[in-house]
Amino acid sequence: MPDLFELPPPPVIAMADSEAKFPVGRIFCVGQNYAAHARELGFEPQRDAPIWFTKSPAAVCLSGSTIAYPPGTENCHYEVELVVAVGKQAFRIGVDDALSVVIGYGVGLDLTRRDLQNKARGQGHPWDTGKDFENAAVLAPLTPAPEFGVPERQGITLTRNGTIKQQASLTELIWSVPELIADLSRMYHLAPGDLIFTGTPAGVGPIAPGDRLVGSIDGLTDLTLTIGEAE
Ligand code: MN
Questions:
Q1: CA of 231 to the centre of ligand 1 (A)
Q2: Is 222 domain-assigned?
Q3: Residue 205 included in any domain
Q4: Whose CA, among 18, 31, 93, 185, lies 20 to 30 Å from 114?
Q5: How many folded domains does the chain comprise?
Q6: Structural domain includes residue 220
Q7: How far is the CA of 31 from the centre of ligand 1 (A)?
Q8: Alpha carbons 209 and 70: distance in angstroms, whole number
Q9: 96 lies in a domain?
Q10: For residue 47, how far is its CA from the centre of ligand 1 (angstroms)?
Q11: For 27, phi and psi rounded to 5 degrees?
C-alpha cells in the first residue's frame, strides 16, 4: 500500500566551497553554556551536567533568508552559537576521541520565544514551544572540520542592524565541544546528520520586524537573517 502522503525531504545545509551538502537529522542544543549568559538569565553557572534540549528538523531555516516575525510571541530573542555537525556514529565516546566524529562547523542562531520559555520554566513545564518552532534553527553553510581546526580561541559575534550585541570567545564555553559530544553520546547513538548547538554568549536580546542579524565566528561563513513583519 502506498503511503497516505509524502513528507518533505530533510533540510540540507551547504558545505562552504563544496558541492557537498549535509542532510539534517536531529538537532541537539545546550543551554547556559557561557557563564555570563547564565547570569544574565538569572542563574549561577554550573558544572553538574549540560542542560540539553532539542529542536526538530522542521525548525531549520537557511542563512540568507527573510522570515516573518515568529507567531505566538512578543519577545523573540537571537542567540548566536557555534554549531557542530556530526559525520560519524558515536556511542559512549570518550572526550579525547570526540572531535573525530565532527565533519564540520557552522554559525547558527537559536531563535527563542523567551516569553514562552520563561513561562514554561517558571511552571516546571517543557521548553518546546519556546525553542522548537518554524525557522528557530537558523544555519549558515558548514566549513569542513579540518579547515576550521579545533574550536578554542575563535571569536563569536552577533550584530543587530550593524551594532554588536554579542561578542565572546569559544574559550568561554563551560562545556567544551568534546565534552558535549561525549556527554550526549552517553544517552544517544549519535549519527551522521546530527547537529549540536553549543550555547550562546551573553548579550541576548529581542528581534523586531526590519532587523538584519549577522552572526560570525572566526574561520566560518557568516550567517545572515532578515526579520519581516508578523504574519
Ligand atoms: Mn541557545
A1: 24
A2: yes
A3: yes
A4: 185
A5: 1
A6: yes
A7: 5
A8: 10
A9: yes
A10: 17
A11: -125, 110
205: confidence class by pLDDT, cuts 50, 70, 90:
very high
- DSSP secondary structure of 156-191: EEEEETTEEEEEEEGGGBSS-HHHHHHHHTTTS-B-
Write out pLDDT tens, residues 3-36: 999 999 999 999 998 899 999 999 999 999 999 9
Mean pLDDT of 62-76: 98
For residue 55, report the distance from its CA to the centre of ligand 1, in Å: 11
| CATH (domain of 77) | 3.90.850.10
Res. 203: pLDDT tops 90: yes
User: What does the pLDDT average to over 109-123?
Assistant: 97
Cell of 192: 551522521
CA of 29 to the centre of ligand 1 (A): 7
Rounded distance from Cα 129 to ligand 1 centre (Å): 14
Pairing assessment for the beta strands 76-78 and 205-206 based on DSSP bridges: antiparallel
Domain of residue 199 covers 21-228
